[in-house]
Amino acid sequence: MENNVVEMRDIVKIFPPDNVALKRVSLSIKKGEIHSIIGENGAGKSTLMKVLYGLEKANQGEIFLGGVHKQISTPKEAVDCGIGMVHQEFMLVGVYTVLENIVLGDEPCNALGMLKLDAARDKLKNILEQFHFDFPLDEQVQNLSVAAQQKIEIVKLLYRNVDILILDEPTAVLAPQEADELFKLLEQLKQAGKTILFISHKLDEVLRISDTITVMRRGERVWTKPNQGLDKIALSNAMVGRDVMLTVEKPETVPGDTVLEFDGVSVKSPLVPGKLDNDRVSFSVRAGEILGVAGVEGNGQYEMVQALIGALPICAGNIRLMGRDISKDAIRERRRQISYISQDRKRSGSSQTDTLTDNVTMTHHYVSGRLKGKLGLLSVRKMRKLCDEIIENYQVKCKNSSTRMMELSGGNQQKVIIGREIELGCRLLVADQPVRGLDVGSIEYIHKKIVEERNKGVAVLLVSADLDELFSLSDRIVVFHNGRLVAQRRPDETTREEIGEFMLGARSELND
Amino acid sequence: MSWNLILTILSSAFSASIPVLLAGMGGLFTHHANVFNISLEGMLLVSAFTAVAGTMSTGSWVMGLVYGMLGSVFVSLLFAFFVLKIQMGEFITGIAINTLATGGTTYFMRQMFNVKGTLTSPDIVSIPKWDIPILRDIPVLSDILNGQPWLFYFAFLVVIPLVYIVLYKTRFGLRLRATGFEAKAADAVGIKSHSYRLIAILICGVLCGLGGSYLSIGYMRMFSENMSSGRGWIAIAIILLTKGQPLKIMMLALVFGFCEGLGMSLQGYEIPVQFTYMLPYVATIIALFLDSRKKKSVGNKKA
Amino acid sequence: MTKKATTIALGILTAIGMGMLLLVWQGYDPLDSYAAVFRYSMGSSFAIGVTLERTAIVAMVALAATTTFSSGASNLGMFGQILTGEIIATAIGVYLPLPGWLLIPAMLIGSALGGACMALIAGLLRKYFNMNEFITTLMFNFILDYFTEYLVNTSMRDPLMSWPMSKVIAPQGVMPRFFGFLDGSVFFALAILVISYILWKNTRFGYEMRMNGKNPIFANYGGCDAQGNFLKAMALSGAYNGLAGCLLIIGSGQQNRFVPGMGENYANEGLMIAIVANNNVIGVVLYSFLFSMLNAGATGMQLETSVPLEFITMLIGLTVMSVVSIREYSTTFINNAKAMAENRKFKKREVK
Fold it and tell me: B292 to chain C: which residues are within 8 Å by CB?
């Protein structure tokens, strides 16, 4: 009991109106250990940690730190108790400098409230030296790499003398080599006496670094065991409650004609003048194949997709779809032939406050003749019929076609979107991070659907930050680094480490 | 154009810019807190009315100022309640408040003073004008800047520097701006972004209160229906154009004041009066246009 | 559907209730005042005609506001576009010698085009120069107000009147009255409402507008021509305002001439109606009628119980705020209540 630096008892958390995220969860953490909490998306691991960190208020339950009952209602109180959290989405103010971000909330100042930031520099120097950090304190945070930003988040916590660090899916945004660096840092922190809570759904990593593993499923803690004699199958079974297909069955196909061709395409950055987000990028996708696009986020993949869709103009080269140059076409024209599953289903892929029917009608309303009614007007009846078909064929769990999009779970929303896009019947399907943040069941299903389309002869362009996904689905993989395509490989001819090297620019196969 | 005319224009330019300037100073706080506040017009109007009512009922300009600020703060509290607590949507709340302000001030003017249109009275005590010793002896400047209500000097010499310092050099300002940029980040380090938004709205109320009071008991000595005449909207335009930077707001407010001063002074001449009245609004559109030429936009703006 | 109906009913009751409270607070007799309002707005066929004529006009403005809110364009230039419609209708009505059956349509079309153009100009300034249409349309309000005032002070002035105003339009330009009390504007507005409803629900244009209003990014990626739709929405919104302006001139119960500054209160009221009706066409009709009733009866109320006219403006503003806050807050309230119920389930288990 005394060894338990953290103990959470019978935590209940309900999100209005009726989403019970935590069903009386109890958890014990020992001092100085690296304790991983795994579970699929929606299992409640993030929520549990947010309760510990004071970002969410539990409806019931108690927290004990070192045997003492503590009331943690705000992040500030958590930090005062020595608990800190590094979130999946970084909580940094991009336009502020590193120094400003680190001291925000605890700024040194004089009696009048005037800032005295220099007083913090000394204390920071010690921390930076102890853990071998090296970033410019006066640079704007938004100009630094994602891995650096993550380290800044950790320094924020160390600056406040935090002893228990919670890391929420930290490697989701890192290349394999950057993840290795992070793990070394975690070891150092452990040596310095800190306790680490590591939330993840990546089983390899968890097995590699943890002392103890806790599995959560559907808002409950399944078990907690020391990391001895455990393997991926045991873990995934506990996470999902059944056998999980970790790879997708993909029959051999012979790819057909070239559907999409990028020929020397360059895209200028709208935000940073003079910067090229895409620099002479060339690749092609053929009918019946899946081309996977790998790369650390922010290396030009997003801009490539935007240029393909027509949202960003290109300044050199051209884009050809089935032989025809579409470089000057508006989005409206391109969408007649391109199905698009966007990265951000809430912002770009759907209208959250509208009904499913309204969401499904998008693009179909001018592309497909199915929705035409009397006098060439849209028929509401046919719109509903399309929606009902999609609900049935894509196993969407919802009340009916008049339900609002936001009332569906993430996985079901994505299924509606994918249903809509696939039903357009286009020759090219673009999928940008299609399963990010979804539960295992939805992931399996959506991967199956994507492979089904590929088998039917659709050309698929798959952009993903998840190397596992890319390796299991792609027929070929290309890697983006600094806006250029630096490598192309077949999954069976390469390894994750090799792709990681390309992602980080340690290697490159450019011709010039 | 005679020299005297130019001096008159410049003098009224500085004076006319104060309401817009103060409203701009107030509005920039809500801008930096990422609150879309379009109730500035309503705040100016209400405070102009309450200031006049205040002086008339108490016979003192001090109370006039106090009442003016109270009126505007009341409006800001209303705005804060509906936007922050009920989460009614900033645009709708702003429009509704502006409508209420227009209807309300006209209604109460009738109820309390039995007047329609314009309320003038010898009982209105205006803010005392200052005759500044050194300034009065400088030839040109004295004609332009001397003899203004003291609030004028206060606005330029105290309010503007204070706003600048608070915004960029204090802990409060750092946190306020952080709330506006990334409320999540602020919340994560324990800064209650909710409270900062509320404080920003209140500060806006106070400063608009000063601006509206200046309008009715400083610059002029009366209250007329819809007296604010779009000054609140012009302040919003200025805030958007300058992205909330105090010094730039001051400069644009002066430009606006200049146009208004020009408009008033040209009245006697052959230009139809309506065109001179149009000047400030046309100037705002031109300012927007010039600003757009500065930005080099690349890519699809609508995306 | 029933949820929408309940909210509307609730809104109407709130309006009446608030009105009573306010009247009592200000020391007036609520029942007498309401009786006067009712009598002057619905008490005779003449009164009904006046109320309906007013409803027609304000409904047009509300449609303009609905179009702009639903499509994500910010057209705040209601007043300016109404003025444009009014001045063009007046100009055509005074200076174009056409027979009635040509003149009235000419005025309607002319003012619709005029309003559309003014809004479109702001839209184009946004498209080509990224000038915020919110501010430009607002500034146009003031500029047009002064400009139209200038016109009736000079070239369009009626020499016979002591205050500056335009001449009266040709008698054949005035809307005919049907059944002795129903102005033609009412039928015209009805037709426009039906067309608008169909436009909104059943056309590609309407669909794209709605989606663009709810989530322009989604609409853009879905292939909706964001910029084109934006311009169309602005133009349509301006057209509605122009029509409202025209009806203000040609209605049989109106002055049939342009007086500087006329129509300003309709602009605000139209905005309020769109807000409180939540951009729903049926709601627009009902609230337009309700507010017109209040306004039409206000003169009577002032005569009989001496409640000032501006009371109604305040009442309308307060009603809008109450209805909208109830609407916004009720969802949060219901959700929180459901969550508490779930929480209790967990407590019960412990007792077992």
Answer: 129-131
Q: Note whether C276 contacts B: Cβ–Cβ < 8 A.
A: no
Would the pLDDT of A90 be above 90?
no
Which among B169, B184, B299 has the least Cβ separation from residue A91?
A: B184
- C-alpha B303/C-alpha B175 separation (Å) is 30
pLDDT at position B301: 32
Q: Which SS3 state, helix, strand or coil, does residue A24 take? A: strand
**Which of C199, C346, C347 to substitute to test the interface with A, most A CBs within 10 Å?**
C346
Task: Report chain B residues whose CB lies below 8 A from the CB of A91.
Answer: 182, 184-185, 187-189
CA dihedral in degrees (A373, A377, A379, A383; nearest 10)? 120
Q: Could you read off the pLDDT of B246-264 as tens digits, one per residue?
A: 999 999 999 888 888 777 7
What architecture does CATH give domain A245-337+426-512?
A: 3-Layer(aba) Sandwich (3.40)
Q: Which residue of A has its CA nearest to B189?
A: A105
**HSE-up of B114 (CA within 13 Å, CB side)?**
1
Q: Could you say which of B86, B107, B293 has the minimum Cβ distance to residue C329?
A: B86
Looking at the complex, does the CB of residue A309 fall below 8 Å from at least one CB of chain C? yes
CB B91 within 8 A of CB C272: no
Residues of chain C contacting B237 with CB distance shorter than 8 Å: 132, 135, 139
Fold classification of A4-240 (topology level)? Rossmann fold (3.40.50)
pLDDT in tens, A396-429: 988 888 888 988 888 889 999 999 999 999 999 9
CATH architecture of B3-120+149-293: Orthogonal Bundle (1.10)
Whether C316 contacts C269, CB under 8 Å: yes
Taking an 8 Å cut-off on Cβ atoms, the answer to whether A87 and B188 are in contact is: yes
| Whole-prediction pTM | 0.84
Sequence spans of domains, chain B: 3-120+149-293
Flag if A105 and B186 touch (Cβ within 8 Å): yes
